[in-house]
Design brief:
Layout (H helix, E strand, L loop, with lengths): L1 E7 L11 H9 L5 E4 L1 E2 L5 H14 L5 E3 L1 E5 L6 E5 L11 H10 L3 E4 L21 E6 H4 L7 H5 L5 E5 L11 E5 L7 H9 L3 E5 L2 E2 L7 H26 L6
Parallel strand pairs: 1-2, 2-4, 3-5, 7-8, 8-9
Antiparallel strand pairs: 1-10, 5-6, 6-7, 10-11, 11-12
């Protein structure tokens, strides 16, 4: 089992801060062997995607493989879909069902991202399910230190895989979430994609496997308490900063 960091942005995204080389070093130091990149679709073209794929290959090392991917958004910027294995750029602002069909036709895979962000889960349609590989049950940037509130229930009546995503933009998102892949070394883009498609993967948090519906029981309750405290502390810090009591 090797660790893959899922849902990672570099400075190829309009809001990313780290270069691909910096990400390779940072995640290697934390024990990851694969980066499942998901750059925002904004500003991409077919030519830029090809350049990006070449940059991912150039930044990969013997210690870590960088797998290129795109996070597509609908026109309202509510539903986001993580995709890998699609060589051509599919376009910005596509209706989600149209996007999913294009990903499937191209032999790629798609994951429904951060369902709690802007209540995106309310838009999930039954006809999307057959074109999805999984749903992010825990997104570090949106959900914080605890699993999302709705993803578990969305998975109950489907065969979709639970994913955990760091949604990395800055070092604040570093957190021990990983998709563990059961595969032989060294990983290649093709072998990683095949591992995901064949469901040879599992979501882990804090070094432990997640069950199908999140961490459950006291673990989930404890993490939710910790996340409530973290958010309260962050709000207090921002308030003090606005008042001039905190400086960089």
């Amino acid at each position: 089992m090797i660790k893959a960091a899922c849902h990672v942005h570099s400075d190829w995204s309009y809001d990313g801060k780290w270069t691909l080389a910096e990400l390779a070093r940072g995640f290697t130091a934390r024990g990851y062997r694969v980066l499942l990149m998901t750059e925002h679709d904004r500003g991409f073209t077919k030519t830029r995607l090809q350049q990006y794929r070449e940059a991912c290959a150039a930044a990969s090392t013997q210690e870590i493989l960088i797998v290129p991917g795109i996070e597509y958004s609908d026109a309202e910027n509510v539903v986001h879909i993580l995709t890998w294995g699609v060589v051509d750029f599919l376009g910005e602002g596509l209706p989600t069902l149209e996007l999913l069909k294009k990903v499937n036709d191209a032999g790629g895979m798609a994951v429904f991202a951060h369902p709690d962000r802007k209540d995106a889960w309310k838009n999930l349609k039954p006809q999307w399910i057959k074109n999805l590989l999984g749903i992010e049950i825990w997104n570090r940037k949106t959900d914080g230190w605890a699993p999302g509130k709705t993803a578990g229930s969305l998975l109950q009546d489907s065969s979709l895989i639970p994913f955990v995503g760091i949604d990395f933009h800055t070092s604040r998102q570093f957190f021990p979430l990983a998709m563990e892949l059961e595969m032989e070394l060294p990983p290649t883009e093709e072998s990683v994609l095949e591992c995901l498609k064949s469901r040879g993967c599992r979501a882990t948090a804090l070094g432990r496997p997640l069950d199908r519906y999140g961490l459950g029981g006291w673990r989930r309750s404890g993490l939710r308490v910790a996340e409530t405290g973290r958010r309260a502390a962050a709000r207090a810090f921002r308030k003090l900063k606005l008042m001039g009591a905190v400086t960089k």
